[in-house]
């Protein structure tokens, strides 16, 4: 089985790609960030007139990002407990990792998914976190 999945429960993809794609019993999520599905806003983000980040709230972004991932999993017929691998992209490892790691533990302690966390210079919108997830699906 090969199926494309999109949902109104997560922010619309920024390009020609789906929220997720099923291949057999695996579900591959595209990069899912912290933009709100309701209004495309980023929780806790303040920008100056030129669009530069004044301040952001990594905890709020983590929680929104995880909510978006959950929405895609639910729309796909999978669930949070079926996550097997997570790649996390942070834009400021030194500052954000401790808070992100604490919030991550709240959501993933019982899941025990494999995880890789990397720092990137920037993401396509002024978000501070993005997740790339692989889950199983029945």
Portion in strands:
25-35%
Oligomer: single chain
| Helix-strand makeup class | alpha+beta
Helix content: 25-40%
Q: Main sheet? A: 7 strands, mixed
Average pLDDT taken over every residue: 95
| H/E element sequence | EEEEEEHEHEE
β-strand number: 9
Poorly predicted regions: none
What count of helical segments does DSSP give?
2
* CATH architectural group: 2-Layer Sandwich
The first-level CATH class is given as: Alpha Beta
What is the CATH topology descriptor?
Answer: 60s Ribosomal Protein L30, Chain: A
The Rg value, from CA coordinates, equals: 15 Å
First-residue to last-residue Cα separation: 11 Å
Q: Outline, from the CA principal axes?
A: globular
Q: How would you name the CATH homologous superfamily?
A: RutC-like
Number of domains: 1
Description of the structure:
The longest helix is centred in the middle third of the chain and has 19 residues, at about 60-75. The chain contains two helices and nine strands. It has one domain: 60s Ribosomal Protein L30, Chain: A (2-Layer Sandwich), CATH 3.30.1330.40. It has about 140 residues and is of the alpha+beta class. About 30% of the residues are buried. Helix 1 (about 60-75) crosses helix 2 (about 95-110). Helix content is about 25%, strand content about 30%. Helix 2 links the parallel strand 7 and strand 8 (about 115-120).
